[in-house]
User: Which sequence fits this backbone?
């Protein structure tokens, strides 16, 4: 990931300050080529590498008649989320805080919270673009079916997005500086990769391990999104797990976040 030099939007006019922040931050975000690659393209590259293995494209009775590539489409969607929420966004927000930008904005028409909202919107939009690209590549290149239950898939997707960014916000809230955030972020990132099924799809896990993973936000999200891919409504328990994690982490981050 690249590190941005914090810049204060001091020239923003009172009229429409949030839109001005959005335009300024969008220009800066467009220069973050490293972040854009890892959020937007890296999951697609990973899916393509897995899809290049012939045995991974074959339907497997042990996986409910799905292929490994079929299972990895929702997994790579979740990977894009945690790339954005845990590795990219916290470093930008902390750079602003360490440079005193958030503190100075409290004396202007632009409220500091606008920066945070805009950052979430920009990263979430990039994740959405990556998700569309993943579904398209999976369908057109590897024959992976599109979600058969779109309402269930979208519900699980949005809850997973909220939970992922809430976790990233919690890391930002408790980290005094970018170096500490990098440590916490890396620990959460690799743990989230495991529970999302990057190393081994949740559906391929067995016994106690799978039951434990299903109580994590990304493990439950993986199960819910996979069920929607197959045409079933996600299990209410899985959705509640993701929603509960998102709500608790969001409350935690709001309570502990420091502007300076």
Assistant:
């Amino acid at each position: 990931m690249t590190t941005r030099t914090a810049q204060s939007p001091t020239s923003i006019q009172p009229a429409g300050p949030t839109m001005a922040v959005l335009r300024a931050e969008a220009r800066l975000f467009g220069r973050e080529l490293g972040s854009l690659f890892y959020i937007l393209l890296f999951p697609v590259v990973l899916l393509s590498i897995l899809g290049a293995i012939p045995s991974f494209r074959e339907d497997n009775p042990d996986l409910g008649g799905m292929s490994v590539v079929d299972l990895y489409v929702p997994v790579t969607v979740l990977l894009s989320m945690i790339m954005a929420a845990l590795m990219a966004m916290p470093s930008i927000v902390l750079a602003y805080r360490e440079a005193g930008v958030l503190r100075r904005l409290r004396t202007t028409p632009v409220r500091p919270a606008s920066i945070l909202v805009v950052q979430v919107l920009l990263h979430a939009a990039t994740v959405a673009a990556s998700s569309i690209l993943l579904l398209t590549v999976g369908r057109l290149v590897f024959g992976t079916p599109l979600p058969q239950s779109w309402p269930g898939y979208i519900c699980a997707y949005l809850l997973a997005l909220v939970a992922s960014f809430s976790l990233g916000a919690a890391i930002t809230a408790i980290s005094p500086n970018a170096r500490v955030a990098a440590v916490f972020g890396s620990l959460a990132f690799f743990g989230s990769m495991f529970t999302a099924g990057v190393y081994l799809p949740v559906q391929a896990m067995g016994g106690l391990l799978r039951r434990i993973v299903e109580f994590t936000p990304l493990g439950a999200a993986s199960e819910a999104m996979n069920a929607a891919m197959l045409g079933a409504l996600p299990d209410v328990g899985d959705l509640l797990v993701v929603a509960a994690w998102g709500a608790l982490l969001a409350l935690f981050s709001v309570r502990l976040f420091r502007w300076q």
Observations:
- DSSP finds ten helices and no strands in the chain.
- The two ends are 24 Å apart (CA to CA).
